[in-house]
Design a protein that fits this description.
It is globular, with a radius of gyration of 18 Å. It folds into two domains: 19-58, no CATH class; 60-120, no CATH class. Strands 1-2 form a two-stranded parallel ribbon. The N and C termini lie far apart (44 Å). With 120 residues, the chain is mainly alpha-helical. The protein has helices spanning 20-37, 47-51, 99-110; strands spanning 64-67, 86-89.
């Protein structure tokens, strides 16, 4: 941890025993508790405010998700955070995913127009 404490580059986030639905339910419970205690007025809550109740609100939303193994689903992973994430699916299994496979995925990502829910 000391060695990497000044890292300003990429962030590796390990989601162990994690479920996106559970994260959203836990956030909703914390919101409800804050409304009951008077810390928050329900009518003041918006998407930005709700996101602050998620497990790691300081982490940026992913720009790109690579799903290996041929599965074409997100499997309860970062359900809130993936709203505007570009998804890439490959039949390659994770242990076999090579640098070349990564470059193919990144080229695909570079060719996309990111609209964040808008239209062209």
């Amino acid at each position: 941890m000391r060695k990497l404490s000044r890292n300003t580059g990429m962030v590796l986030n390990l989601a162990v025993s994690y479920g996106g639905r559970r994260e959203i339910v836990d956030a909703a419970r914390r919101v409800a508790a804050d409304v009951v205690s008077g810390k928050l007025r329900a009518e003041d809550l918006d998407e930005t405010g709700f996101a602050k109740y998620l497990y790691r609100p300081e982490l940026p939303e992913p720009d790109f998700l690579i799903r290996t193994s041929g599965e074409q689903r997100i499997s309860n992973f970062l359900l809130w955070q993936l709203a505007y994430t570009e998804l890439y699916f490959t039949d390659v299994l994770w242990p076999d995913f090579s640098e070349e496979d990564l470059l193919v995925a990144l080229r695909e990502f570079q060719s996309r127009e990111r609209r964040f829910g808008g239209t062209t």
